[in-house]
């Protein structure tokens, strides 16, 4: 089978995918047997004399990797066949929803807040759920979070997305694997939070990193961040002192009465010293439940569903999470490649001396790399705000500016 | 220095090991025993691990019970902490057990090769993790090693789980004599976060019993055993090397505290996940920060912790496990005293972290309660061959690509020795060789990315270097066509602003 044919087949599949919406993804068409013993499923995107660009398929995730021919034992090329595709969540198997069963959609929120854990992406996932037929639309959205934090800039939009959009239409539940810093602010918008055994939440000190090291936020900036913490705590109906002790040094203690009601103190007068002076609070799962931040420890979807009062439940809306996974993968690829492409643009310019023909050719090469970078950012739109690979926000203005400079360089004289 | 009042509990267990290994029984033969002690009663300890120990209780202390354990015709003393004991049955009528099917005089190797080991009550598959954790043992070989164990046992059902009736029979033992790079200190935990899911997959998804056996679990490796509810130590076993968090400094005290706090949150998660919710967090906090106190007293054999000095006047009730290392409390050698908590075998047992102490596989089998009839997988143990092969490959990779200026890798040396001089053809060949070596390095980095280049930055830099050599070659070629010599570096072009 020629490359052309394969691409044609691919295009047909993609059309089908778009039309059927929840239908199958494309089956793995090629296999690469590596000399280290690994066998990789996916499809060959392009080939050179010494390398192969391969789209790895890992579950619902696609990842582009380059392999040198010397690393490869053999390549097995197969006709892509949609019928042979392994059933994946969201495939066109009819979803059987028993009467009275809870419909739960799980959305994973992972990696750096801002570029990866992103409000626009979350709203896009919500839209996917909104667009489902009514009988498949979830009763509950579980936001499963595993993030070490990130950009404060994204905290506001995420709060708005969860508190004003998601909670407006759905019962929204947080489920913590790890929620540190900006991720803790994100999940605190949920009134109902559960945690996995390994869960942790806190460590929310806002800071900036400069050449001299880290500097904790101070002054007006800090006040704004503390206000945001307070507002978010109120969104999630928690005492704001808890979040504050995650953000700045303060003593936090509490009393717990026999009914489990908790009274908080910003000093050590309570029976339980939750965070002593000079420490920043991060709660482990046991303490998060003990101090009422989380409702219970649940390690599996089934345990969580039961804790939510769903004796019978079905998972719906896989596509919403599939979008998150693809979004994160696109950002990852774009971030890694951005630095490399920028370096290659600089190299092309450094070698643009000599003949006019060489100059034109190198400028053309630089513009081609720039275009490739722009295409990557198009699939990873959060980089328009946050940049990637050491580059500033990669928005339209930036691309226009760089392209203009390259065109200027290409002019004679 | 407020040193601990640790009792040398291991002595009894050493004695027990010795008794087991001894060729002759230390007591009477069964027949004689029957005649001599017809009306004998025994005491029975039911341990939290599920094991049942029978014998005569010799002594009960605040912390544990010393019992003369009866094993067929043998007897030997052993000590169990109250924290290990679920129930005690006293003065039960003695009923001699039938003689065990395993001939103790047989060597371990007699049980290998064929799957005749299925006749044994338990099969122990030992996977050894040695050298640098996260480098010489890593997620890929460990996953392969577990897969080899799965294949050997051939016991997974259609759901990919070990059937309940085989869970006490097919046991994987992970023996640790490893630590992360000491320079990483506590931050070795991030490598453990990469590797631990491989074990968790076995424990949680496959329902396989994975038992940790610790000789040395240092740095990041000290977090790994916590994911399993079953931990054993060797007599000299030690867990620690993470007491560096107080040294954490990225320029701002509050930000330091944030970073320390979130790290502890992750670490405590390991312990809670493995079922050590009560003892794990206080122990880990004391292991991680020198300034943290940890005292303990015992209530019904259970440890009650206090993250401070013992209250005034109650010093006799408490045992100080670690002090703040300040002033008079400062130890002469920071890593030998109690300024930073390290867990040795005695303490691990006492605190209920370890289920037992075992110096060899026979001891371990006894501690696991399978000593009557067990087999160890030896020659068919592919898992250890996988781990050894990975170790060798990693060492070879380091020999080739090391960036350490004092011991640079062979490929790095070869690359640096290439001179791009001479005729155009010589220069072209030299650049071709440069590119070839860079690609070789890149290939090694790809193969062992999880160890050497997890985020791909090194490979991205190599791609850039390769691009530079290619451009140099094009420029040289253009220069040659114009009749000029070496035009390395092209020239004349301009850079762009843009990188922040």
How does this model look, in words?
Chain A is built from twelve helices and 17 strands. Chain A has 413 residues and is α/β, with parallel strands linked by helices. Chain A has three domains: 82 residues, SH3 type barrels, CATH 2.30.30.100; 215 residues, Alpha-Beta Complex (2-enoyl-CoA Hydratase, Chain A, domain 1); 80 residues, no CATH class. In chain A, strands 6, 7, 8, 9, 10, 16 and 17 form a seven-stranded mixed beta sheet that branches. In chain A, α2 links the parallel β6 and β7. The longest helix of chain A is centred in the last third of the chain and has 33 residues. With 500 residues, chain B is of the alpha/beta class. Chain B folds into three domains: 84 residues, SH3 type barrels (Roll); 283 residues, 2-enoyl-CoA Hydratase, Chain A, domain 1 (Alpha-Beta Complex), CATH 3.90.226.10; 80 residues, no CATH class. Chain B has 13 helices and 15 strands. In chain B, strands 6, 7, 8, 9, 13, 14 and 15 form a seven-stranded mixed beta sheet that branches. In chain B, strands 4-3-2-1-5 form a five-stranded antiparallel beta sheet. A three-stranded antiparallel beta sheet of chain B has the order 11-10-12. The longest helix of chain B is centred in the C-terminal third of the chain and has 25 residues. Chain B is globular and about 100 Å long. Chains A and B meet through β10, β12, β16, α7 and α9 of A and α5, α11 and α13 of B.
């Amino acid at each position: 089978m020629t490359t052309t044919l394969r691409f044609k087949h691919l295009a047909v599949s993609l059309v089908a995918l778009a039309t059927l919406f929840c239908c199958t993804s494309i089956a793995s068409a090629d296999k690469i047997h590596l000399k280290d013993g690994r066998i990789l499923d996916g499809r060959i995107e392009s080939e050179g004399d010494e390398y192969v660009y391969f789209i790895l398929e890992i579950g619902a995730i696609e990842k582009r990797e380059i392999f040198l021919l010397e690393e490869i034992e053999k390549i097995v090329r197969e006709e892509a066949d949609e019928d042979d595709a392994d059933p994946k969540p969201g495939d066109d198997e009819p979803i059987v929803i028993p009467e009275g069963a809870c419909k739960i959609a799980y959305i994973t929120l992972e990696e750096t807040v801002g570029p990866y854990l992103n409000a626009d992406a979350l709203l896009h996932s919500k839209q996917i759920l909104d667009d489902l037929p009514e009988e498949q639309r979830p009763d509950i959205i579980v936001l499963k979070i595993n993030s070490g934090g990130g950009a404060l800039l994204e905290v506001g939009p995420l709060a708005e997305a969860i508190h004003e959009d998601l909670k407006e239409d759905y019962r929204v539940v947080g489920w913590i694997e790890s929620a540190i810093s900006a991720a803790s602010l994100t999940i605190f918008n949920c009134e109902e939070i559960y945690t996995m055994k390994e869960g942790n939440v806190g460590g929310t000190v806002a800071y900036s990193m400069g050449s001299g090291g880290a500097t904790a936020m101070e002054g007006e900036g800090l006040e704004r961040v503390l206000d945001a913490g307070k507002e978010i705590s109120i969104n999630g109906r928690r005492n704001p002192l808890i979040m504050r002790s995650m953000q700045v040094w303060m003593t936090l203690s509490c009393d717990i009465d026999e009914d489990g009601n908790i009274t908080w103190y910003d000093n050590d007068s309570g029976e339980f010293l939750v965070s002593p002076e000079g420490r920043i609070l991060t709660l482990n799962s046991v303490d998060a439940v003990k101090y009422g931040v989380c409702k219970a420890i649940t390690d599996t979807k089934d345990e969580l569903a039961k804790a939510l009062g769903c004796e019978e439940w079905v998972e719906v809306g896989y596509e919403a999470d599939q979008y998150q996974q693809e979004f994160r993968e696109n950002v990852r690829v774009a971030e890694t490649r951005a630095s490399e492409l920028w370096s290659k643009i600089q190299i092309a310019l450094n070698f643009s001396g000599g003949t006019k023909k060489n100059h034109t050719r190198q400028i053309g090469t630089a513009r081609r790399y720039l275009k490739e970078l722009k295409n990557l950012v198009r699939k990873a739109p959060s980089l328009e705000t946050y940049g990637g690979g050491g580059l500033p926000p990669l928005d339209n203005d930036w691309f226009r500016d760089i392209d203009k400079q390259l065109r200027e360089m290409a002019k004679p004289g | 220095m407020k040193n601990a009042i640790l009792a040398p509990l291991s002595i009894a267990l050493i004695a027990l090991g010795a008794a087991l290994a001894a060729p002759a029984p230390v007591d009477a033969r069964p027949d004689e025993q029957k005649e001599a002690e017809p009306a004998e009663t025994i005491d029975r300890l039911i341990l939290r691990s599920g094991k049942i120990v029978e014998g005569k209780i010799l002594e009960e202390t605040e912390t544990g019970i010393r019992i003369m354990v009866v094993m067929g015709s043998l007897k030997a003393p052993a000590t169990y902490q109250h924290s290990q004991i679920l129930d005690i049955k006293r003065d039960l009528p003695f009923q001699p057990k039938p003689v065990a099917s395993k001939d103790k005089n047989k060597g371990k190797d007699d049980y290998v090769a064929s799957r005749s080991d299925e006749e044994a009550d338990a099969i122990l598959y030992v996977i050894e993790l040695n050298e640098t954790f996260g480098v010489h043992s890593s997620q890929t070989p460990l996953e392969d090693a577990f897969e080899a164990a799965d294949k050997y046992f051939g016991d997974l059902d259609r759901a990919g789980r070990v059937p309940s009736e085989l869970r006490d029979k097919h046991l994987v033992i992970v023996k640790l004599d490893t630590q992360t790079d000491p320079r990483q200190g506590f931050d070795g935990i991030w490598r453990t976060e990469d590797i631990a899911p491989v074990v968790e997959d076995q424990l949680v998804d496959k329902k396989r019993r994975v038992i940790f056996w610790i000789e040395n679990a240092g740095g990041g490796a000290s977090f790994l055993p916590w994911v399993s509810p079953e931990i054993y130590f060797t007599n000299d076993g030690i867990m620690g090397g993470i007491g560096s968090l107080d040294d954490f400094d990225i320029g701002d005290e509050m930000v330091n505290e944030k970073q320390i706090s979130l790290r502890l949150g992750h670490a405590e998660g390991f312990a809670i996940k493995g079922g050590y919710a009560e003892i794990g967090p206080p122990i880990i906090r004391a292991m991680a920060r020198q300034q943290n106190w940890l005292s303990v007293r015992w209530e019904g054999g259970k440890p009650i912790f206090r993250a401070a000095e013992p209250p005034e006047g109650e010093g006799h009730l408490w045992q100080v496990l670690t002090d703040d290392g300040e002033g008079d409390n400062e130890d002469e050698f920071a890593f030998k005293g109690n300024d930073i908590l390290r867990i040795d075998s005695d303490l691990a047992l006492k605190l209920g972290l370890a289920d037992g102490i075992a110096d060899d596989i026979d001891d371990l089998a006894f501690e696991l309660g399978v000593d009557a009839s067990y087999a160890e997988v030896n020659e068919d143990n592919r898992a250890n061959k996988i781990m050894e092969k990975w170790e060798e490959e990693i060492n070879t990779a380091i020999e080739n690509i090391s960036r350490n200026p004092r011991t640079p890798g062979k490929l790095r040396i070869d690359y640096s020795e290439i001179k791009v001089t001479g005729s155009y053809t010589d220069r072209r060949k030299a650049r071709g060789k440069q590119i070839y070596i860079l690609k070789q390095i890149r290939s090694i980095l790809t193969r062992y990315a999880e160890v050497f280049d997890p985020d791909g930055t090194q490979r991205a830099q190599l791609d850039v270097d390769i691009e530079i050599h290619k451009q140099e070659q094009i420029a040289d070629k253009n220069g040659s066509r114009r009749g000029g010599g070496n035009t390395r570096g092209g020239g004349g072009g301009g850079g762009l602003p843009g990188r922040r």
